[in-house]
Amino acid sequence: MPLLFEPVYTEGLAQLSYVVGDTAAGVAAVVDPRRDVQVYVDIAHRSGVRLTHAIETHIHADFASGVHELAARLPLRIAGGAQGGYGFDFQPLADGDTIALGGIRLQALHTPGHTPEHICLLLQDDHQGDAPFGILTGDTLFNLDVGRPDLLGEAETRRLAAALHRSLFRRILPLGDRLEVFPCHGAGSACGKSIGDRRQSTIGNERRFNPALADRPEDRFIDWLLADMPEPPRHYARLKRLNAAGAPVTGGPPVPMPLSPGEFAKAAPQAVVVDIRSMLAFGGGHVPGAISIGLREEFPNWAGWMLPDDRPLLLVGDGPEDVAEAALQLYRIGLDRVEGYLRGGMNAWQNAALPLAHAAQWSVRELDERRRDPQVGILDVRSDEEVVKGRIPGATHIYLPHLEARLNELDASRTLAVYCGSGYRSSIAVSILQRHGFRSVANVPGAWAAWTAARKEVQ
Questions:
Q1: What is the pLDDT of residues 2-24, one digit of tens each?
Q2: Which of 10, 66, 168, 286 could form a disulfide with 33 if both were Cys (CB 3.0 to 4.6 A apart)?
Q3: Do 2 and 21 meet the contact criterion of CB atoms below 8 Å apart?
């Protein structure tokens, strides 16, 4: 069959991009490409097609777009919604405009709401009739969720939420239940409130099971959608600006320089040291002042939240492979200044007799035994949405992204035991507290999950 339709899923970002084209005609387009673009070049080469377009459904907030990296490599056109505030030359797609790829057609459907310029793309295959068979919904419609309308600030939120209601109920749902839905994100992305696990769906499935598509008047839809909306990650505003201007073309992710312990120690004061090992490895021994952000699926989101974009980054990992993966994940969110890593890891550091910091790790049973000690304080760094469902009795709550701004609310003379949902975010918090001079802090691995599993007291 001449239809080429290949999704590309990016873990960590929970992001979906698509290569769409006609193998008989030898042409294809990439929709919503990530920044490391070799995967699309490889698909095109393997399929025997030429990439003619790189299309944005909207100005992305959660990852650096790869349209300019593709355009630097290939003679293709960048296209996007005609209403967009793009700061570069592009092919504007107004409502109803079509990009023909042999017998495959992509028709723009203006669907404002998540952003003002947002377009969806109807998919039509001439070999299967005149009606579209699917729709690339970008960040308008997900499995069991819809795009959040609050990323442009409070002044625009209700207006965009109203536009989203009209896009969903007047433009998308009338297309018919059989139409397949291909979104830009799956579960784990913060571009919706609670995106479902399925990476594709149908309009009929979403009509039946998606709580956002319940039959509500527009004003009640807006109130429902905005209720308990999680705080948008801090780096989203930065990435909006980056993608509106066009992410810089670098040719690929940075290649960090291996540094001896002495070279690393000399460079560290001018940089941010990021320890990408597990929380337990970090607790056992780390470079003083390092911030702990373990290389797990959550890494790009919390690196975006917590790391500056105006200082060089130095990495500490278990090996060169982990360092390369972390540099790639950082590149995907526009953090390009990864300038080096500790060659030989912490073994080399300690063998060089350089200063070594530690972070205590308390089990939930140890925390339960010590929590009534007046010299022990408990800090909960989970989100507001998590804390309202219960907390450890007596815990102070400060959401992790706000910790540095609220350190004056904590008593540095006490031992602080820090917990989150699993121990991952609390390890980040412990490292921040140590950087700011808190001498007695402890992470709680397992954290809230272990506390409730052990049937400990809940407030």
A1: 999 999 999 999 999 999 999 99
A2: 66
A3: no
User: What would the pLDDT profile of 70-82 be if each residue is shown by its tens digit?
Assistant: 999 999 999 999 9
> Can you give the pTM of this predicted structure?
0.95
Question: Tokens at residue 181, please?
Answer: 């839905």
DSSP per-residue codes, 392-457: -TT-EE--GGGTGGGGGGS-TTSEEEEE-SSSHHHHHHHHHHHHTT--SEEE-TTHHHHHHHTT--
**CA 114 – CA 112 distance, rounded (Å):** 6
Nearest to 150 by CA among 166, 139, 136, 142: 139
- Residue bearing tokens 């049937």: 455
Query: CA–CA separation, 126 vs 198, rounded Å?
Result: 27
The set of residues, in sequence order, having a beta carbon less than 8 Å from that of 186 and lying 6+ positions away, is 9, 14, 16, 142, 143, 195, 196, 197, 198, 199
| Angle ∠(136,138,142) on CA atoms, nearest 5 | 90
Q: Which amino acid is at 134?
A: G
Q: Which domains does the chain have, with CATH numbers?
A: 3-235 (3.60.15.10), 257-351 (3.40.250.10), 360-453 (3.40.250.10)
Which positions are catalytic? 420
